[in-house]
Amino acid sequence: MTLTGREAGIDLLETALADCVAGHSRIVLIEAGTGCGKSALVDLVAERAAASGALVLYAVGAPEEQQVPLGVLRQLVNSEQVFALPKPSEGPGAPSRVEAMQAFCAELRELSLDCPVVLCVDDVQYADRESLQYVQYLARHARTAPVLVVVAGTVHAPAQDPAFTTELMRQPHFRRMRLERLTAAEVALVRGRQEPSAHAAETAELHRISGGNPLLLRALVEEAAGRVAPESAATDPCAPSFPSPEPGGPFAQAVATCLRRSGPDGLALARAAALLGEQATAARVTRLTGLDAAAARRGLAALEASGLLEGLRFRHPAARAAALEECDPQTRTALHQGAARVLGEDRGPVLAVAGHLLAACAEGRPLDCGPAEVAVLRDAAEELLVRGDAREAARLLELAARGRGDEHVERGIRVRLAQITARFDPAAAERQLGELLEAARAGLLDAEQVQPLAGLLLAQGQFAEAAALLPAALGEPAAAALDTLVDATAAVGERLLQSARLTDATVAPLAQAVRSLICSEHPERAVPWSRNLLEEALRCQAPGWSAVFAALHAEALLRMGDLRGAYAHATAALEALPERGGSFPCAPAAVLIRACTAMGRFTEASRLADRQVPKGLLTGLHGLAFLRARGLYRLAVNQPHAALADFLEVGRLMETGRVDRPAFLPWRTDAAEALLRLGEGARAEQLALQQLTLPDAQRPYVRGVSLRIKALTGDPKRRTALLGQAVEALHRSGDRVEAARAMAELGRALQADGSPAKGSAMIRSAWNLAKEAEATALCREILPDAPLTTPAARDRTPSEATPAAGTTAKLSSSEQRVATLAAQGLTNREISAKLYLTVSTVEQHLTRVYRKLQITSRGDLPTGLSPVPHPTPA
């Protein structure tokens, strides 16, 4: 007869105890999952038996004592010191085991004459074989004595003696009781909820997490009592009003206790199920533990009966963590390796297999990956990339690269690893290229491996190296590294930008397409494309790509004279980098130096320009751009010798590397500018003329800057015409800063040619254009005394507009003379020398002129001021 349910079980035990007190023998077997209350029932019957005057003999089985003969029996007889246990021996003259069991049974029968005897054996599954034989003998031969035998064991426990339970069941006075886990209604009663419907969410959650296991439920309630309920409980009446258990808390500790009491097999099975997680099946768990099918089946059933598992899943992450918490690193490594092997044999998800391999390696022990594991790691890395997790993909490939396998496969893995690393750390990717580049030069890489390697080199600005690799792999002569990029038409670049999606394979071609647009006759087209690619890189959560396209966007904006935009995006590019090593940071740094220099932020520019850069990093395009930017900064702060050295070094490196294209970097006119500062006009003119003979001189930007230098160094009679051509070309190029510079030179040339009004107007236009671009340094060069905080005339409201020419009647003759010269672009010092006045007097006149004409700067002076004869010295 088998009974279930706690109330029925208590009734059964009370009836059995009453029968025993009345002089009848009874045997009760209590079975339950671990932690489900069987020990509590044994304690209850022992307490009530003692209260009724019965003699209670108590024993508890333990795994560590299971191999100790008569260990449980000694606990029973010693619990009350009622009699000495016979010592059976095989020697001659000593009592046999049967005689010892007879003596034991006789002693208990004699004790029962004085009072009922109750034998309680808890955790009988761990009792030793010899003790169980004594209990069996007692069950057979004490039927007429007032003896109650209560044994409790875990359901589905491995039977040490299969005949034990069978022998008990044969007895007519035997009863069997199965304790099931608590129902949701019983959980509500345990919580003191008389109206379960009012706390349905809390009850359901408690029941779900504990599985109805009383021990886990008590631990869960205890943990919740010491913590704050979640905020959702206040707003959502259906939400549970207690916090979720945490790893290491009372609930997790109770889970660990249940697992330890489940025995070695149960603990091993629980760990295997926890480790496999969503990939756990009975077959996989069995293979991972190495148990035979029957033992695994019993162990899993016992874990489910206790509520620890639901199917093969833990009911809460804290329970799963508790199963793995007490594993030592060596055991955990072995489990992860075994899990990877089992899943690999079943062709399980590659991400799951790779995760176990990575976890095994994370324990700090060397992991031996064979070809099969290497293949899994590669496939898993690609799957992670689809999900956007480049860092984890890189970790998998790092592990794969250390595995056993073909060297050719290993090199392919390292190329792919460098590609992926470039997504989030260009400097780290660059460090990985050295060994690969040597292998490529030695002919150890095939075309499929050379292509991505060349793309990485292009992204690092190593055009010469990339150009040498590709033709070598294809058996063709190397072409000039920059020719393909610079000579590509805008239409070709935009077709690629329109059709290609941003990936590891396309990031380099797309970046080069944007750079090609920047060097083309339509650099303005690079601005929206670089912005789109930057936004896409941000969506991909790829900081490395974001840095690449932020730097290109900054470069495109700088090329158009948008200094503030260039500054912002170059700063963002540097901030996106996890480290500043390698050559790539030179690209955004170069833009930032140039933008800061043009904006007059010389202190900020100096911090970047004075940074020590290894010479080896200056040979690529990014390094060349940095050298040029440093030279422009030094030129701006009046260090022409140092600037010239930088420009000439740029030229030497470009010529040596066969990347001498002024469309990318016009070093000759930069050097000519420095030479002009040093008074070497002839050498400056020679460089300008040389640049004008190159094919790139047909491009508006190159033509414009070359003509400006040629005009300044050549025949003064042709200066105005050449500067006019330079201004026209630079306007077409879109570069507002360079256009403003040329316009200012043209204005001065016009003044020198006898057209002061036109020259002044041109100078004011140049100043306004430079101010619009926020080129503070150029504004001060054009009109040193003009305040930069005042909006340009065209930005003012109509009420603030410049007065008509007729208002000049309000000016005195002295004021009109000063205003006329100021409108022509002369500085206060030049006006004072021309009119033989002090600088202070000039400033006072100008202040009155501004007030009378209702203007705020010399840039707003009207062009209709009539020239006044200059006074002659006395």
Descriptive account of the structure:
This protein is mainly alpha-helical. The chain has a 6-stranded parallel sheet with strand order 1-6-2-5-4-3, with helices on both faces. Strands 7-8 form a two-stranded antiparallel sheet. It starts with a strand and ends in a 21-residue tail after the last helix. Residues 472-479, 790-809 and 870-874 have low confidence and may be disordered.
Q: In percent, how much strand structure appears in the residues?
A: under 5%
Strand count, sense and barrel status of the largest sheet are:
6 strands, parallel
Shape: elongated
Low-confidence stretches: 472-479, 790-809, 870-874
Radius of gyration: 45 Å
* Strands side by side in the biggest sheet: 1-6-2-5-4-3
